[in-house]
Write a structure and sequence with these properties.
Its cofactor is Mn(2+). InterPro entries: Amidohydrolase, Bact_exopeptidase_dim_dom, Peptidase_M20, Peptidase_M20_dimer. The structure is a single chain. By secondary structure, this protein is of the alpha/beta class. The strands form four sheets. Strands 1-2-4-3-5-16-6-15 form an eight-stranded mixed beta sheet, sandwiched between helices. The chain is elongated, with a radius of gyration of 23 Å. The chain folds into two domains: about 280 residues, Zn peptidases (Aminopeptidase, 3-Layer(aba) Sandwich), CATH 3.40.630.10; about 110 residues, Alpha-Beta Plaits (2-Layer Sandwich). About 35% of the residues lie in helices and about 25% in strands.
Length: about 400
């Protein structure tokens, strides 16, 4: 379905009304998923519930465990001509203790849907519900992908390796992300680079343990770790071209079991975010040479495990332009933002762009807390809007 601009505006209004009609179900699903978060490749309860909901929809063919045990892929309009459109969302949660105070907060200590995947899944189920009732309006097949292991474990790569694109003849991939600090209901995207590349860094420091009162008889791995953390920031501030972008952050430190004992070893885990592969290569080389030398100066040993994890998300320019035309009809000009620069977040949606044209976009939640924060929440009023928008794209792209 395409039609005139006025036809498309009317379609958008109709879809918004249909999304509101199923909003109670969307919210219920979101709260279910939020209460029972599961980590990457462990989304067993989540996947089972997603598949159960999809299998109840007319015309939907559901493939459980496609390529990955917890993946769910559903196909609508299997007999329609032409290549398929893929709509994708993530499923996994983060290892965080929730602090939202929501009545439907996580029931699993130490786990939380801090990135909004609970809302993404519920929204995509809403899209599937709307489109199932409009099967006669579809011009080509639509694939709904509920993807495991987005949070640093490259679930997208595993599904691609299992033949996802060949099996479903996909020629366009779309994904949304609910973004705090962006005004509520605003759509933001840009052609070309949308997100940063995202790598993983692990540093292991080996010294000699000892009593806290006798540091001269030990090799203090904690102090050495502090020196390394500061020296690594110097690589970014003094060795990377200041006109380039790079950030290194360490979010996990493992050191010892007692407050009064110097531990024998320390582990540091962190991430690099950048936009340029040459910057990545420079930082990687400097870390691999600098870290062992600094540790050796303090009589310890250290080594770096550097893993190139996610590439940058690259929005296809032509399909992005088409999508933005539709966005202005659906949201209105004032609620569509062309981003001046990409964000430093990482996304394994990037792997899909190597297989077919893809577009990744943000929908603002207006919230204060960033993603990955234990108080981050997705306002439920945005869910039917996002569901109607994705249904609109499925019917017009």
């Amino acid at each position: 379905m395409t039609g005139t601009r006025e036809d498309q505006r009317l379609l958008g209004a109709q879809l918004l009304a249909e999304a509101e009609d199923v909003s109670d179900r969307i919210v219920t699903w979101r709260r279910e998923f939020h209460q029972f978060p599961e980590l990457a490749f462990e989304e067993n309860i989540t996947a089972s519930r997603v598949a159960q909901i999809l299998e109840a929809l007319p015309g939907m063919k559901v493939h459980r465990s496609f390529g990955v045990a917890t993946a769910v892929v559903a196909l609508l309009g299997e007999d329609l001509p032409g290549p398929a459109l893929l709509l994708r969302c993530g499923m996994d949660a983060l290892a965080l203790d929730e602090e939202t105070g929501l009545p439907f907060a996580s029931c699993i200590p130490g786990l939380m849907h801090a990135c909004g995947h609970d809302a993404h899944m519920a929204t995509l189920l809403g899209v599937a519900t709307i489109l199932s009732g409009r099967l006669h309006d579809l011009s080509r097949p639509v694939v709904f992908l509920f993807q495991p292991a987005e949070e640093g474990r490259a679930g997208a790569k595993a599904l691609i390796g299992a033949g996802l694109f060949e099996r479903f003849s996909i020629d366009l991939v779309l994904g949304i992300y609910f973004r705090p600090r962006l005004p509520f209901g605003v759509l933001a995207l840009r052609p070309g680079t949308m997100t940063a590349l995202s790598d993983r860094i692990h540093i292991e420091i080996q010294g000699t343990g000892g009593h806290a009162a006798s540091p001269h008889r030990a090799i203090d791995t904690v102090t050495i770790g502090a020196h390394l953390l500061l020296a690594i920031q110097n690589v970014v501030s003094r060795e990377v071209d200041p006109q380039e972008t790079a950030v290194i952050s360490f979010g996990q430190v493992e050191a010892g079991d007692a407050y009064n004992a110097i531990p024998k070893e320390v582990h540091l885990w962190g991430t690099l975010r950048a936009f340029d592969g040459e910057v990545r290569d420079l930082v990687k080389e400097r870390l691999e040479s600098l870290v062992p030398l600094i540790a050796r100066a303090y009589r310890a040993n250290a080594h770096v495990e550097y893993a190139k994890n996610y590439p940058s998300v690259e929005n296809d320019p032509e399909r992005t332009a088409e999508l933005m035309e539709r966005a202005r009809l659906f949201f209105g000009d004032e609620a569509v933002e062309v981003m001046e620069r990409p964000v430093l977040s990482g996304e394994d949606f990037a792997f899909y762009g190597d297989q077919a044209p893809s577009v990744f976009m943000f929908i603002g939640t207006g919230e204060t807390y960033d993603v990955n924060h234990p108080k981050n929440d997705v306002p439920e009023a945005v869910l039917p809007l996002a569901a109607a928008w994705q249904a609109f794209l499925a019917l017009t792209m």
